[in-house]
Amino acid sequence: MMNTAGHPMLKTHGLSKSFTLHLQGGTTMPVLENVELTVNSGECVVLSGPSGAGKSTLMRSLYGNYRVGQGSILIRHRDDWVDLAQADPRRILAVRRDTLGYVSQFLRVVPRVPTIEIVAEALTIRGADHAEAITRARSLLLRLNLPERLHGLPPATFSGGEQQRVNLARGFIGGHPILLLDEPTASLDAINRDAVVGLVAEAKAAGTAILGIVHDTPTRDAIADRLFKLYPAQMAAA
Amino acid sequence: MTLPLLEAHDLQLNFGSIRALDHVSMALWPGEVLAIVGESGSGKTTLLKVLSGSESPDHGQVLYRDPELALHDVHAMAAPRLRALHRSDWGFVQQNPRDALRMGVSAGGNVGERLMAQGARHYGSIRSSALDWLREVEIDPQRIDDLPRTFSGGMLQRLQIARTLATHPRLVFMDEPTGGLDVSVQARLLDLIRSLVSRLGLAVILVTHDIAVARLLAGRILVMRRGQVVETGLTDQVLDDPQHPYTQLLVSSVLQA
Question: Taking every annotated instance into account, which residue ranges of this chain make up the domain ABC transporter (chain B) (predicted)?
Fold first, then answer.
């Protein structure tokens, strides 16, 4: 893929999100207000702002995991713009399969499935050949320093850092044009953080648009082209 | 744009003063898994029965679109045609495999019977197909001539799945397929269902009270309460950011393991 000057891949306009807690007497908590964010191909934008500013909520909203109240989330899907805030579930699933990748902090998988199959599946659902997907999964897991003897085991009993690396492999293997990284290095040691920095650099060079939440400063400095600051919604409203 | 395989419009059904289905509409597209969740008495099993034609609604329609895109009104269909549909395009997985299997017929016979009902006559090919399906659901092929009553609960459920899928249905109804099984057996069955569904491109309507099962298997979810659909959408969105008070209660009531 060619890395041209960088064109918008993800744009939000007037994005607002609040939570209504029906079990707490209908309390409404505004979290995001009028977020205007653009991420271009080939760049990595890192969200900043104090705890509670809504960084995770924004990431989840951008993935369609949270339902937004107002505004739009435009995703460059093949040759179209899809508004994820309005798209029906089947459309969102298609965008996730082909365009929008996500690395979460938590690994949620069917019990009993071997690690390598979990990673390879992210490719086979996009139509890749199973054998080729397994080969790619193996090399990505090795690159993330997950030894081969673990590949055949389900990740349920793995340490936090090992599970995180399974998640990373699953997120990067698909080669999605847009990648959301929610604290991808939270439970990793220095060597593995470096591996992640390398993967991000390669993805950027291939034209991937990346948005991340990264708390550790060395990693953030190594991958971020710019920061996007979020403020707690109540303050923004005042 | 692909068209839905199954559509329900404004289904209503009362049992005396109880509203079992209260203005329920839905659609299912080819190759997708839709979970219907809700607690006992919410109407989810009734909805499955009405969708699959075994119970008639007081009002409303269920339409099935066949591979040639012709629409069929499930409840206006003559009984023999509905039975033929259940033998060919459709499959049904019951919560209790004993309700679906013939306990006095061998494992291979249970699979072969459905193939024969669809017109297969050649003994050798029926037996080899049965063997393939037993392998597919991880039952030792050497058990082909054993009676189901010598099988464990998990094996019986896998045998029912083999029997159901042997005729290559394109739409499968599942009623609590992992209910009543030990957790370890349940995990294995979930893995099996998930891989078969994605490899065979099956459309599935799955009734479950277990929202973890819905999360792992279904792309879309429909939450029912007192005969009504209170919320529907993308499974992870509905479960992680529920909008309706009842869905919030349902999600927050799950015990964390």
Answer: 6-251
Burial (0-12, 13-18, 19+ Cβ within 10 Å), A96: buried
Distance CA B190, CA A157 (A): 19
Identify which of A176, A180, A183 has the alpha carbon closest to the alpha carbon of residue A220: A183
State the best of A62, A88, A92 to mutate against chain B, taking most chain B CBs within 10 Å.
A92
**Could you tell me the pLDDT band of residue A1, with boundaries at 50, 70 and 90?**
very low
pLDDT in tens, B239-257: 999 999 999 999 988 766 5
Among B3, B194, B225, B241, the strongest candidate for a mutation testing the A interface, having the largest count of A CBs within 10 A, is B241
Contact yes or no for A88/B164 (Cβ under 8 A): no
CB–CB of A111 and B249 under 8 A? no
Cβ-count burial of B209 within 10 angstroms (0-12 exposed, 13-18 middle, 19+ buried)?
middle
Smallest CA–CA separation between A223 and chain B, in Å?
29
Interchain CB distance below 8 Å, B194 and A110: yes
The DSSP H or E segment spanning A135 is helix A130-143
ipTM of the complex: 0.89
